[in-house]
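Hi there. Long-time user, first ticket. I'm pasting a complex I've been working with (about 774 residues overall). I'd like to know whether the download I got is complete or cut off, because the file seemed smaller than I expected. Thanks.
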Amino acid sequence: MVVTGAGKRTYRIVRAFAVVAGSLVLFGSGANVASAEDGLSIIASVQNQTVDAGVSQKQPVAGVTITVTTPAGSIIGTGVTDVAGLISFPIPARDNYIVTLDTATLPNGFTMIDSAKAVSIVNKDDFTTTVKRATFFTGSSNTSSQTLFNRMIQRGADGLRLGLVIAMCAVGLSLIFGTTGLTNFAHGEMVTFGGLMAFLLNVTMGIPLLISAPVVVALGGLFGLALNVFIFGKLRRRGVGLISQLVVSVGLSIVLRNMYLYQFGGRTKPLNDYSQQTVMRLGPTSITPRDLTTAILSLLVLVAVALFIQKSRTGKAIRAVSDNPTLASSTGIDTQRIIRIVWFAGGALAALGGIFRGLDEQVGFEMGSRLVFLMFAAITLGGLGSAFGALVGGVLVGVFVEMASLVVPSELKNVPALLILIIVLVVRPQGILGRKQRVG
Amino acid sequence: MDWINIIQNTCKALTGVDAAYFALAAIGLNVQFGYTGLLNFGQAAFMACGAYGIGMTSKYFGIGMWWGIPIGMGFVIVLALLVGIPTLRLRADYLAIVTIALAEMVRLIVRSVRFKQYFGGSDGINGFSLQFRELSPFDPGVQYGIKPFQYSGYTVWTLLVGWALVAIFATLVYMLMRSPWGRVIKAIREDEDAVRSLGKSVYSYKMQSLIIGGLIGMFSGVIFALDRGSVQPDNYSRDVTFYILTALVLGGVAKVSGSIVGSMLFWGIFVFSDNFLRELTKDGPLKIFGVTVMQKIQVGAINYMLIGVGLMLLMTFRPQGIFGNRKEMALDAR
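Hi, the file is complete. Here it is re-exported in full:
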């Protein structure tokens, strides 16, 4: 252990921050969309929703009259939606507004899904950016006409897809925990990093995703490595305890998330490539070719990771370090090198997960932090520190969460994941694949 | 640059309602985190219990607002048992994972459309604090106090109640930690096994600490809701807990005065930097060498970044905070 002066240490940490910050300024160049809007506005969007075999598709509805009023009733603006189903209203201040859709102006054959939803209330606290969207849905969903069995199959397939991505992101989290003992609360931000980098390369620079994705994965790995070299490696060498490191990772997640918000803005945006998809039938389920491809790719990546950990020399070393770092290092394993590999691999996998999430949903500054809780549920279920546990746990959590949306409203589908966490911790705290040792 | 305004706002923030409700939440978190070593990352959920307790009772159940406090306490105890029973026997980070999940779940449930008739959905609950306002002896139209510490009548009333609660709970925790109970609690933080070998039920003491800290946090939510006159689900997001943690670490962990001073400093610094950055970007984006570095709408993000950096630096270089005692910061004994 090298003992350095306090000043030098401060300098190092500050430099570490500067490096991380510098790497993020990279995508300040063009992705800085937030700057485009000066004034506050409300964008109303009218979409016709059709559900075909469990997959919902949306088409914009043009020519619908929308009115924005204050709660007191004075009219801020009235307008008709354009071909994209959108109409924008400039508003004077962040305040409460009521956005009303005139149902009489809907094209023939279109009805509101829920007549109460013809009015949308915009709360002044909803303005996370200068623009607030109010979306109206028309059309009737025919989910109820499907049999429960079909819906279960469809949810199961969706859950499998989600689960594979969760597993991919969670493997790194679990390996980092296994080798260093750190519970990294900033892991979600590593996922977001992948999504945002993909946006930078694919949308801002216009590089096709097939070429930019490997670059993003490499950058994600380097990002993970940088976090280890400049922050957590330094903390370990200083002898900062694990709980303090955990709190540092919480601080890091706040810093990174707000850096993303600063550079990217608060809205979610789609990637360029593969955003238009037609649904195809696959047995009893329907899936887009893109989602099928990402699912297969995720599966291949996860099998490769599993084989790597199980068979390769480095993989064996990783397991040895997870098992007992002191013993591993006394047998000649370079534990610091293993830790660097784990951070690199964890960052790369998280970035890939971020790209897949970005394709599936959209890219946003919070995309990873929304996932981090499911990742924790996954690794707790699978067994903290076990790579295979993370794989199994991730898939199970994904399927469970999607299946749960059959019973609970989809806005609450993550809530049952908390139940998994609690039940697992009561029944089998070491997780499905965890070693039977004292975790208390 | 309007320095007078910035300094005035900063001074007001030092003793403002925000500092008071943060201080309450931090005192509660200190019982758990500072004294017992429990990583409760869901303090925001306990705050929401109090806020929604008073909001729901007066708005939906038609019984007096004050019934909300016992009901909120009931919520806190139920939630604390829910997360405590499975995790308090395990390593410290399990509690962190489960409480952070709990806070997110509570927020999802209260803002959901499904439970809108109880919790008001994403609009929250508004207009319930009349009963509290009516008790105010101050004239709402008059500005009380001397500049820069000047507040309107209703705010003075909230401040009075808020800081009185801070004083009560600070004294309570101070005495509690000097009681035999407090000594056991601190011993658990230092060495759980030693306490166990003395025949104490570590599990039960940890649970008591979690509940007591949560109840104090609940009062923080009550003050916050009364001040705003409304309850909004997104005011209880998981990041709120981290800001409170930052305030706590800033002031000093395992010290009653630390939570209070930390909260005041936190808000002083936060409001200062917020006002300062807003002044910088008032007349258009801030440019350095012709490169736009900051827009008005980015000020919030930069401010929160500073909080995160502050938390990281404090945890690394001065985990005991400004006034804390390093010996009391034995969180990593285990």
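A couple of notes from our side: Strands of chain A lie at 41-52, 55-60, 65-69, 75-80, 86-90, 97-101, 119-122, 131-138, 280-282, 285-287. Residues 1-6, 23-37 of chain A have pLDDT under 50 and may be disordered.
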